[in-house]
Design brief:
Mean pLDDT: 95
Order of helices and strands: EHEEEEHEHHEEEEEHEHEHHEHEEHH
Shape: globular
Number of domains: 3
Number of strands: 16
Distance between the termini: 31 Å
Low-confidence stretches: none
Helix content: 25-40%
Radius of gyration: 21 Å
Length: 378
């Protein structure tokens, strides 16, 4: 291993690799671009502090180095072993979700988890954060769609983890090892339609959501508050974006695509308006009804995967001081501090002590040399 050379970049251009979508700034001592699993094994064995990076789309600082070597997996983008009959495919960690979907399209297949960052997020990052996305009501989180993963440990050893072991890595945000490859479950590609439903009150939002969740062809129920609706050139009302895997929606083809594109642009529009800090608490639907008045009182815009209770309140720099208060209310209402973005650097202080102990124990067991994503999560 000592004779293996890694392609890296010169120090003046470290800067793009010292931030992620959270815009937190870190410090990289080097950046390595492995092209093969063997390259990852060598890098893991030879370096003492490693931050793992995929598409850099994380919103909690999970890919921000803390005086570490950055291991950028973006060049590990091979798609192999497509099994059409069994609906499975093997992918390396750096495969971008939209590129996987384009590869699968001619075969009438797709990977069903759909985060709004689908055009740039990588499969490795989705597994590390256990990504959810807008179709959670029907397809759940990424962990449901994994057959197995391959992981490199702190000694540079490669191992395959099956259904009983993947929980030590899925959702652990890269703190327990480097996910390098995975076998994914697929579904037949669907023809989808949509409906945009205006609502006069939060109570009506909740009522419609409960009714729509009973319909088996509904694959998405997204909520937009009044402020966001107006910024999207919609009426000054609450809105639900509802997707159907059937002909039940009145928006089809181009109109459907336009509405989905509008949905994907919500956070970029908010960020442009100065609401750069996006959170992701999760709670029951009846608690959502009780939480919304607090957001509106504080003029905090909110959109949500409302069918599964994942809310996305967005804070301006001046409003960030309200986040600890929000977290207290979320916990009081029996909610979780993170529904899909993870903990990273931004939410470490809000983890419950018992949850922290569990995460620490997993890291100690899997990352015995304490090398991976130091300072993140725990």
């Amino acid at each position: 291993m000592k004779n293996i050379k890694h392609k890296s970049i010169s120090k003046p251009v470290f800067s793009p690799y010292e931030i992620d979508a959270s815009q937190l700034k870190g410090k990289a001592t080097n950046v390595i671009f492995p092209k093969t699993i063997s390259d990852v094994k060598a890098a893991a064995a030879l370096n003492s502090r490693i931050t793992i990076r995929g598409g850099g789309t994380g919103l909690v600082g999970g890919a921000v180095p803390q005086n570490d070597v950055v291991l950028d997996l973006s060049k590990m983008d091979k798609i192999t072993n497509l099994d059409i009959e069994r609906r499975a495919v093997d992918v390396e960690a750096g495969v971008v979700l939209d590129e996987l979907q384009a590869y699968l399209m001619p075969y009438g297949l797709e990977f069903p988890v759909n985060p709004s960052s689908h055009s740039v997020c990588t499969i490795g990052g989705m597994i590390a954060t256990n990504a959810v996305g807008s179709r959670a009501i029907k397809y759940g989180d990424t962990s449901r769609w994994i057959n197995w993963i391959e992981v490199v440990d702190s000694y540079g050893a490669l191992s395959k983890k099956g259904a009983t072991e993947i929980s030590d890595y899925v959702g652990m945000e890269g703190t327990s090892g480097v996910i390098v490859r995975a076998s994914l479950k697929l579904v037949h590609r669907k023809e989808r339609t949509a409906r945009l439903i205006p609502c006069d009150s939060i109570e009506q939002v909740a009522e419609f959501t409960r009714e729509l969740k009973r319909e088996k062809e509904v694959s998405m129920i997204e909520f937009l508050d009044k402020q966001i609706s107006s910024w999207l050139d919609l009426d000054n009302q609450y809105h639900l974006i509802v997707e159907f895997e059937s002909e039940d929606g009145d928006l089809k083809d181009v109109e459907y695509e336009e509405l989905m594109d509008k949905r994907d642009k919500v956070y970029p529009i908010l960020a442009q308006k100065g609401y750069v800090r996006i959170e992701d608490p999760q709670m029951m639907l009846d608690r959502f009804e009780r939480m919304m008045p607090w957001f509106e009182h504080n003029q905090i815009p909110v959109f949500a995967h409302v069918s599964v209770g994942i809310l996305h309140p967005c804070f301006s720099k001046e409003q960030e001081k309200l986040i600890p208060e929000m977290m207290k209310i979320v916990k009081k209402l029996g909610g979780k501090i993170s529904g899909e973005h993870g903990i990273g650097l931004l939410k470490k202080d809000f983890i419950e002590p018992n949850d922290r102990k569990i995460l620490i124990n997993i890291k100690k067991r899997c990352d015995t040399q304490n090398k991976f994503n130091m300072g993140k999560v725990v």
